[in-house]
Amino acid sequence: MPEFLELLQVASTNTYVKQHATELPDGALVHTPSQSAGRGQKGNSWESEPGKNLTFSLLIKRPQVDVKRQFVLSEAVSLAIVETLAPLASLTIKWPNDIYAGDRKLAGILIEHDLDAEGIVNTVIGVGLNVNQTEFRSDAPNPVSLAQLTGREHDLMPMLERVGSAIEDYCRREVLEPDVLHRRYLSHLYRHDGHPHRFILPGDDAPPFEATIVDIDRDGMLTLRHADTTLHRYAFKEVAFQI
């Protein structure tokens, strides 16, 4: 089980863990009821009403993962959340690692690595999980919480212990079977159903296009089959779902 450390308020748990990684123990999980500057992928912000949700970061030192295959950690974290919360809601993983209920975002994940010549020194896994918040005021287009999905509030600490422990367990143990992990990830993948869906190219004036998800490569690249049957690979932020 992780070693839990609560901070009453912090700008970003990921930033805090990265700054204090040398003195924090392996498996430290830093959480806070009030995060003032939560960060998402590519500089996006994360809205969280104080005391309503789970915002935390888990430190794993020297994860046993090849730096060229580090996407397996993203698969492990996503699966840990989806499978732990399965009794509460039917969830999917929106590539690369957002957690969705239907077409609405329940949780975001930010994974950051420190590297040296030998590989990954530290991995910091940041999670923002909407639990009891029912009003969202930011410009995020489609947030949802467990309270909205289930019609009731949830105790935060027991949920933090379950989710945090599952993430650590998956990252330390499940990655030893990457093929099994990858198949499970694909089985929970948002819109991976063999049917075409609409996508857009961010920052491009081109109209939306239809394509079918074929696979997620081991480096995290998304492979789509376009309407003309050609296959195209995309990195994160090179293509987006139209929701």
Number of helices: 5
Main beta sheet: 7 strands, mixed
Distance between the termini: 37 Å
Order of helices and strands: EHEEHEEEEHHHEEEEE
Nearest-angstrom radius of gyration? Answer: 18 Å
The computed structural class is alpha+beta
Number of domains: 2
**Mean pLDDT value:** 92
Helix content: 10-25%
Shape: globular
Strand content: 25-35%
> CATH superfamily assignment of the largest domain?
Bira Bifunctional Protein, Domain 2
Biggest sheet strand order reads 1-2-3-7-6-5-4
The CATH architecture of the largest domain is 2-Layer Sandwich
Oligomer: single chain
Instruction: Please report the total strand number as a whole number.
Output: 12
Residue stretches low in confidence (pLDDT < 50, at least 5 long) are none
What is CATH's topology name of the largest domain? BirA Bifunctional Protein, domain 2
CATH C-level label of the largest domain: Alpha Beta
List the helices and strands and how they pair.
Blueprint: E1 3-6, H1 13-19, E2 28-32, E3 54-61, H2 71-84, E4 92-94, E5 98-101, E6 104-116, E7 119-129, H3 146-150, H4 156-173, H5 178-187, E8 197-200, E9 209-216, E10 222-226, E11 231-234, E12 240-241
Parallel strand pairs: 1-2
Antiparallel strand pairs: 2-3, 3-7, 4-5, 5-6, 6-7, 8-9, 8-12, 9-10, 10-11
Helix pairs in contact: 2-4, 2-5
Description:
With 243 residues, the protein is an alpha+beta fold. The protein has helices spanning 13-19, 71-84, 146-150, 156-173, 178-187, and strands spanning 3-6, 28-32, 54-61, 92-94, 98-101, 104-116, 119-129, 197-200, 209-216, 222-226, 231-234, 240-241. It folds into two domains: 3-187, Bira Bifunctional Protein, Domain 2 (BirA Bifunctional Protein, domain 2), CATH 3.30.930.10; 197-241, SH3 type barrels (Roll), CATH 2.30.30.100. Helix content is 22%, strand content 29%. Strand 1 (3-6), helix 1 and strand 2 form a beta-alpha-beta unit. The longest helix has 18 residues, at 156-173. The model has no long low-confidence stretch (mean pLDDT 92).
